[in-house]
Amino acid sequence: MAIPLSYNFRNLVVRKTTTVMTAAGIAMTVAVLLAVLGLVSGLQSAFASTGDPLHVLVMRKGGNAELTSLLTQQQFQIVKNFPGIAAGHDGQPLASLEVVTVTNLPNADNPNGMNITIRGLSTRGVEMRHLKLIAGRWFQPGQREIVVGKATAKRYPKAQLGQQLRFGKGLWTVVGIMDSGGGAVDSEIFGDGAQVASDFNRPDTYSSALLQATDEVTAAALRKSLEGDRRLNVTVMSEKEYYAAQMISAQPVKFLGIFVCIIMAIGSCFAAMNTMYAAVARRAKEVGTLRILGFTRGSITLSFLIESLLLSLLGGLLACLITLPLNGVTTGMGNFLTFSETSFNFRVGPEVMAIGLVFSLILGALGGFLPARHAAKKEILTALRDV
Amino acid sequence: MFRYFSLAFKNSLRNRRRSALTISSIAVSLCLLGILIAMYHALFYGEETPGQAIRLVVRHRVSLTQALPFAYEAKIRRVPGVKEITVWNWYGGTYKDARDQRNFFARFGVEPKPFLTERTQLSMPEDQRRAWVTDRTGCLVSRDLANKLNFKVGDRINLIGDIYPGELDLKVVGIFEDPDATNSLFFNWEYLRNTLPLGRRDLIGTFAVLADSPQDVPHIAKAIDDMFANSAYPTKTESEGQFALSFVSFLGNVKLFLMAICAAVTFTILLVSGNTMAMSVRERIAEVGVLKTLGFNNDTILGIIIGEAVSIALIGGVIGLVFASLLTLLVRNFAGNVMPQLRHLTINPTTALIALGIALLIGVVSSFIPAWNAARTNILDSLRYAG
Q1: Average pLDDT value over all residues in chain B
Q2: B 177-236 residues with CB below 8 A of A?
Q3: Spatial distance between the Cα atoms of B299 and B273, rounded to a whole number of angstroms
Q4: What is the pTM of this model?
Q5: Inter-chain contacts counted by CB atoms under 8 A, chains A and B
Q6: Would you kindly state where each structural domain of chain A is located, as residue ranges?
Q7: ipTM for the whole complex
Q8: Which residues are within 8 A (CB) of B136 and not within 5 positions of it... i.e. 6 or more apart?
Q9: Domain locations in chain B as residue ranges
């Protein structure tokens, strides 16, 4: 027969100082894990929400980043007439030749400046991305005008509506702020393709082309036929794949974070063990009494284990509470593929919290196992005689 | 004061399991704290090597991805204090299969003779030096890279360009050792330049400058940047160490990340240690009464209890630091590739002192409240206390 749960609850309440301190120790460990996972998950969602499954990205052969890719006007003329590309409402193919480069803007975190992607494109390219303007208007062709992503506008005091930024060959005026719904485009700056290309001395060699296929099956076929074309010599990826590949930038932080969590977890396990041993020692008489009443060794082990799990679960819940305010904190992370920064929000969502709670339960189980066995092993008579 | 030390120490041995668990818990946490402090130190207060202290990097002010005209070289050479200058051009490219991270290493196009002058700590046999200067298709690889990918003198290395068109067919003419240049390959810039279209021949990514002495570095940097401030290609000149650090900020707010984790770890140890001390003191209140009856005064009792906590924390700290120095070897191998500053990560005396200082502080803070309460309880109450 099992010992009622209320027994464990009451014990935790009676020793509230110890309970709270141990749970807080576990909470800190789990909080570090949650923060790291929240960071990774935030970046992941920024990249995952970027890219349309119908979009394919054309780059130079072997290219894995738009920044280092080259695509000429001539190549683009061939590309845009490939079969399988959807037509816009004006009957023209949905294809956009784009030039990608970076500029440097300072902010409070990086007084020396951080790299921001500048994308020069046509109004067609803007239309294909289904962006929302949250302030101002779109840039005019042939003008030194730019529209900044909302994350860039939030994090960089210089990238505000009406301000001027200096890059390329002159000053560019911010005429609008755009919103892609949390995607990587929110960290970019858009301007007129021809103007950006001429400012960066590359009127003929742009970077890449974005195409929209009529449907997903055609998208795959379009990829094949483009890559197989000998005149072009290009690499084609789906836009989704391209952004997913950029998650590699989170690797160092993920590695460091998990390394830290594992070490902290070992420390917390010892701490939980300490608390549980003390609990067992203080209740030696009670354990003896329970045994006399007919509870088996198994149910006593289980009871102490459950108490340890409750303790760690409390820690886990506390950790969720501590890290909840992280949601909505915006941060940025550089990326060596695009050589620029992507801004994103921490995301301590349900999945991340679930991982944190499971992690805390594992800590509790590891920390509670030995003390629980120790309690059950005691002989009834010695247990009762214990002071 | 020290007469009571043996009493404090003996007390800590009374409940061996608890002390062992507490020491382990503190040791694990301080091991982590030691590594994090060492990382912070290496990243932000790292000593520049003699070579780094005397070299500067000149790049485009806006971004590393924008080029500078080759003509700058002659102008920079005339700046007082400049001993030597060479083109230092990132090639990028792919070696075999880019998806395998092992195949990634830095590839730079340089001018062979000035390169050898500038690398003051480079060591390489004399005949290889001669071959490097005379063989236009020759390249140098660092010893660690040669070991990793099994390159030998005379081997051919084929690189496929991404930023630059075409391929590079190089011959290994030398294998060098240089503490500031690992995992890298250098080839003759002239060789690449001749394969480029006219418009790109005279565009250079960065220049590496050697100063006469480390004292000259700041004024050279200012002189170069002032000289080009109003040109079409403004520059940013920094010491090699600062230049390397700008890549760290790329990984996100590393400073804040490390600090936050350090704080969480410290707080966790404080909780663990405080909890243990509270438990031990509570069990011994009757004893405190006996001590008082024997004539020990409140301050001495306070001292004995704090002394016990401090000795536990310090023992944990020392064990933790020993483990930390072992773990740094592991961290070096993993993190060294992402952040070169971590390649020589060690627990140096400063780090050890800071970590032990924290241990000491934790010992005092964690035991103060329980010790204070125990010392204050009057004799009768404490003798009557049943635990």
Answers
A1: 88
A2: 199, 232
A3: 21
A4: 0.83
A5: 150
A6: 5-48+249-385, 62-232
A7: 0.80
A8: B188, B190, B191
A9: 2-47+252-384, 62-233
